């Protein structure tokens, strides 16, 4: 067969240079060549120097065309194969044409084994065109037992340049298409991973969702979230994610280990290593920067202990400014370059997620620490105050029965009793026995707050609501949400605050001072007073509707003088608690005679006065037995200007001169008639006499006088 060389070269040049798709160009080229020479197949191949592989890219037969997804690759590892690879990849810029005999003689390889494994038909002869600058070649396989002649070889020699131009164009086009597809894939990867990492507030779930997504792209086995302290001496795994799901752990990783095996100045190595790494770094743990200091590191040993294969590809993404990172563990067979590329693409969303995770775990640790401190403080308070009410089986038995009945209910409670009887203790007991015991118990003394600040204290205020309101403040109702609010001395509440309090009880909502936002609070209300609220209602000093709202379940606490059986228990309890408070090195005894003094005393100040008397006696005792010689009933004590019996015996013996008690009684009778029985308020008996209303009522009771002076 005569070869029309010039025409074939022209046709093939037009064919292979006009097709950017090299597979189509090779298919048409094979058709042209097969009309002039015994050609069976054309195979396009490449040699990769980095992974030392021969890869068949495209195979074109008479009726078939296959791409590289269906073709084989071979590791060039024997000495002859290495020599072939080196020659093909080192002679840059040269074009070579080889015949079968030359290949097998010069390189000592059996090329048929590669062709057969690639699915090519057996052949007696072949020609190979190779461009060492592109590391790409073309193999022409003869048909059956036919052999290529010198004329065929010369034709291939003349096709060098057209084939090279076609391969350059095709490779550039393929590279551009690959970059376009890779960019689209990277954009999709970045978008999906960012949504998963930053779109979920649950950090373990966010990392697990991202792990499941990345497994579809790379052979990812595990992700470990790691944090370190300031000097890198302690490393901890906060989160581990694998096929079983996320698991929150706080185990030590011990990347840097000190000991005989790891001798040397580890702190210096840490500092030098930290200086070498940028603020945000992505690094393969088998890189030289880590390998150079392996004698100081124990992470490969530790990873094996954690169940990670020593052959696994381990890449860390670290952020030095937050002392944390993510350790990615891939299968050993995975492409390290592909893994590094994926992590580099997702660097920003992972750093954002790392910051969020560290903040979350820091806040969680602070919350746990505060909760622990709160539990410890509560325990100390319970040790100090006591979990039980002193007298619950004695003089307060009836009171505690009422407490247990109302504690589980949300009803308001009104505790009535003299000053110092322990109204707040009873309120605290109601809270402890209620279903709100885990929520706050907020107390406020209504009589201790200036009238202008009552609204702010109860309901809070907004920034700038009044002079001095430099920031927003939550009121007691808002702070007691879900718990109990104890309003002590409710009778001292101003009229304006009474109106707002009534609305809160009715609507369960309020507004901060200077604000317009409606705030709802579910707080159980307990009020206490030592005043006569019904009389205050009659006098117009307390709102009647508020009184009925508060007086749902009244509890009256008897004064200490009416429950003398509780005095010994209270005395011993206060002795023990005050010894701890005062940090006394001794524990003085309480003689029976002194205890009898306590029992016989009237205790106008109730339990609070007893507590103060115990504290005063402990301070004066210096380790000696306690004495209570300073007990004084101030209601019946003579005034400082009263004359003693010794200085005026004649006056003391005079029957016409009234006693101090009679003088007091006469004074108060006259005073009550003048005020028409009004005790509190402007122009009342307390206002004129300069006495506290509660003190005046107690005084009248001792003198056996009612509000009318009778």
Structure, described:
The structure is a single chain. The strands form five sheets. Strands 1, 2, 3, 4, 5, 6 and 7 form a seven-stranded antiparallel beta sheet that branches. Strands 10-9-8-13-12-11 form a six-stranded antiparallel beta sheet, covered by helices on one side. Strands 15-18-21-14-22 form a five-stranded parallel beta sheet. A hairpin with a 4-residue loop joins β12 and β13. The model is unreliable at 258-262 and 638-655 (pLDDT under 50). α14 (397-407) packs across α15 (423-433) and α21 packs across α23 (606-621). The protein has 27 helices and 22 strands. Helices cover 45% and strands 16% of the residues. The chain is of the alpha+beta class.
Short description:
The protein has 27 helices and 22 strands. The protein has 710 residues and is an alpha+beta fold.
How are the elements arranged and paired?
Elements: H1 5-17, H2 22-33, E1 39-48, E2 53-60, E3 65-66, E4 73-75, H3 79-90, E5 95-99, H4 100-106, H5 111-117, E6 126-131, E7 136-142, H6 150-158, H7 160-198, H8 203-214, E8 220-228, E9 235-242, E10 245-252, H9 266-276, E11 280-284, H10 288-291, H11 299-305, E12 313-319, E13 324-330, H12 336-345, H13 347-385, H14 397-407, E14 413-416, H15 423-433, E15 441-445, H16 454-459, E16 460-461, E17 473-474, H17 476-479, E18 484-488, H18 495-507, E19 509-510, E20 519-520, E21 524-529, H19 533-538, H20 544-550, E22 553-556, H21 567-582, H22 592-600, H23 606-621, H24 649-653, H25 660-674, H26 685-689, H27 693-702
Parallel strand pairs: 14-21, 14-22, 15-18, 18-21
Antiparallel strand pairs: 1-2, 1-7, 2-3, 2-4, 5-6, 6-7, 8-9, 8-13, 9-10, 11-12, 12-13, 16-17, 19-20
Helix pairs in contact: 1-2, 1-7, 7-8, 7-13, 14-15, 21-23
